From TrEMBL:
Keywords (A to Z) from UniProt: Membrane, Transmembrane, Transmembrane helix
Keyword Transmembrane: yes
Protein name: Uncharacterized protein
TM regions (residue ranges): 7-24, 30-49, 61-82, 94-119, 140-158, 164-184, 196-213, 219-239
Residues in the signal sequence: none
Membrane recorded as keyword: yes
Superkingdom of source: Bacteria
Organism: Candidatus Woesebacteria bacterium GW2011_GWA2_44_33
Native organism taxonomy: Bacteria, Candidatus Woeseibacteriota
Length: 268
């Protein structure tokens, strides 16, 4: 079996497991999603085992695990029934059927998403050894998927009506992990790990502050998640440019001061 076939088999298997979580009660789904995320780590490590070395056991496997965990948690926010649409009211059977279609389409998108994640991580593992032409495309796909994962976690954190400090810590921790993977993938070398550590902590800290602020705003969880995702996109884009030395240190410091000041103004 080719590696791409194994990627698709793993994606389909994980998607089937996520679909089956809807058959259990809400109180059991968290444990099931965490278990499936652990399975995603094991299967991803197995299919990429030949090329994994050193820090790649962490950096290459962050996105598959978080994508699975975020999708499983966000899937619980999807409606089980759609009673009305476009001004039309449906009967119970029809509304349940439409809700099932939405969940099915979400699962299909998850399967293709995991497949894309595994393809990009495989390209990263090969690119760390030799130069390949698909590296830039893989970075773009990985960046988009990181934003999708961030949106899932941000929306879930806001929807649970948790205390503001818990929301901020969740937002900051997830942002730190995703930014670490994204910043590391710029050149796939370990000599810049100190800079990657520092910039990831900066992203995590600032996103924690943004999470504090947004948790007080009267916005819907999904809209709040979109707002936080936009902040994460801006932060990660600027700091990626800093890491590849396209932004001078002075502008970098000005950006951090400006971002912290804006958080303080919103907080006040």
């Amino acid at each position: 079996m080719s590696k791409r076939a194994r990627f698709f088999a793993i994606s389909f298997f994980l998607g089937s497991l996520l679909w089956c979580t809807g058959l259990f009660g809400v109180e059991k789904r968290l444990a099931l999603v965490l278990s499936i995320s652990g399975i995603a780590y094991v299967l991803s490590a197995w299919v990429l085992f030949e090329d994994l070395k050193g820090w790649e056991w962490i950096t290459l496997l962050i996105l598959p695990v978080l994508f699975t965990l975020g999708s499983g948690l966000f899937g619980n926010l999807l409606p089980t029934a759609i009673p009305s649409m476009f001004g039309l009211n449906f009967q119970i059977e029809t509304s349940l059927f439409l809700g099932g279609i939405v969940r099915f389409l979400f699962t299909v998108l998850y399967v293709f998403g995991v497949y894309a994640v595994l393809l990009t991580e495989n390209i990263f593992s090969v690119a760390s050894i030799r130069t390949i032409q698909l590296f830039r495309a893989a970075r773009s796909v990985s960046f988009i998927l990181a934003l999708v994962v961030a949106l899932f976690f941000y929306a879930v954190a806001l929807s649970l009506k948790l205390p503001f400090y818990v929301v901020g810590m969740v937002v900051g921790f997830i942002s730190l992990l995703l930014s670490f993977e994204s910043l590391w993938s710029i050149d796939l070398k370990t000599e810049h790990l100190d800079d990657v550590y520092l910039l990831s902590i900066v992203v995590g800290w600032l996103m924690t502050l943004y999470g504090f602020v947004v948790s007080f705003w009267p916005v819907a969880p999904f809209m709040g998640g979109l707002l936080l995702t936009a902040c994460f996109y801006a932060l990660l884009g600027v700091l990626e440019q800093r890491l590849i030395n396209k932004t001078v240190v002075v502008n970098y410091l000005e950006f951090l001061i400006s971002a912290s000041w804006r958080v303080g103004v919103c907080w006040g």
